[in-house]
Amino acid sequence: MKNISNLKEFACTPDRFQGGHRLCPGCAHGMIVREVVNATEDDLVISTATGCLEVCSAIYPYTSWDVSWLHIGFENAAAGISGAEAMYKALSRKNRLYNEDRNVKFVAFGGDGGTYDIGFQSLSGATERGHDFLYVCLDNEGYMNTGGQRSSSTPIGAHTTTSPRGRVSYGEKNRKKDLTMIMAAHGCPYVATAVPGSKHWKDLAAKAAKAISTAGPTFINALSPCTTEWKFKPEDTVEIADLAVETCMFPLYEIEDGHKLTITYRPKQKLPVEEYLSRQGRFSHLFKPENSWVLEEIQKEVDRYWEYLLRREEAGV
Amino acid sequence: MATPKEMMSTWDNIQFGAVLPSFEDPEKKIRSKFNSYNYEVADWRVEKPVFNRNLCIDCDFCWVSCPDSCFIVEEVVNKRGKKQAKIVGINYNLCKGCGVCVDVCPTPIKSLLMFPEFVETQEALNKWPTKDNK
To answer: Can you give the pLDDT at residue B11?
Structure first.
């Protein structure tokens, strides 16, 4: 496990995810991927589900990856990486000299469409079989690559092209699926949530390093603010991600062995959710007088979930 | 930047399971022509960040929050004998001008500021705000 103590030392790491990819300016995918692949010195094999990251980092004839990288379909990033892991295990058992001194780790990246909805069956299967890999979900709360359709990760009240706002509708009506808890219920040795940016950089890097070095299936759910479809200015990406943590809309915690929950960051003063929602164009209709009940509903849900996390951490079950 | 013609290939010329090697020599880290490091996204930019070395405190917040890996880092040894990263400049071929680095810069007078694309770097450094004129 790589020792990550301070940023000055961490910044000496040569980048393994190069620039020149075609992600939008200010896209958080780039920040998360760079931190995860730099958080280890082991050799990496990566598979990426179809999504923003895949179509932008590997446009023929260019590739942004300095590590072994595999393009895979929308639904089977986890199946692909578990196949690669099984192949590596089988080959090293047959031939002892096969990369003897090299430590190879397996990482899969998927957007929230490829993780929450379409790729969930293969992720669940790979977890159940107990392959040794890390799955990182880049959660931008919708199908942003295809024009912003809703996914099961979209929070209540958000405007998307398939849950539009208007006279009758206030946007998305279903609440966000709690995938992190679902993955913990699979009995994963390590499950965590993370955000990109300079304030919580150590949180993300340490979680990635720990997850990669842990044997068995591990999962990180990383919030990735999307400048295009969440409708905010590109330079605000880090601020929005920090606000999501400060308002407890996206709390940072980790779960070990499927039950031991630890909250890794506690906001000093919990901000009202309006601070986070008002910065984004997709929630602007909630600030009309007729929709004020939705805001109250969201606040109530956030408070309930935060209380649940606090109580669960205290109980230690 | 458009992709160079000689690197383009028609569908019937691409082999099955085509592999793009990102390194000519992985041990010496010599990048191949397929590495997107050699691709320019500079024409996406309207405003460019300008870096002022004199005000920088080497916190490396910009390095960690840059989505395009455009900060050029030099490894130096500090007074206590530990290695640390020193930001020396910006790779303008890779910068898309999102402005995240300016947003996260913590110094009282920012050591990174956005300037219009046509302003020369030296001219921008002369125009830098001072303590009395923030």
So the answer is: 76
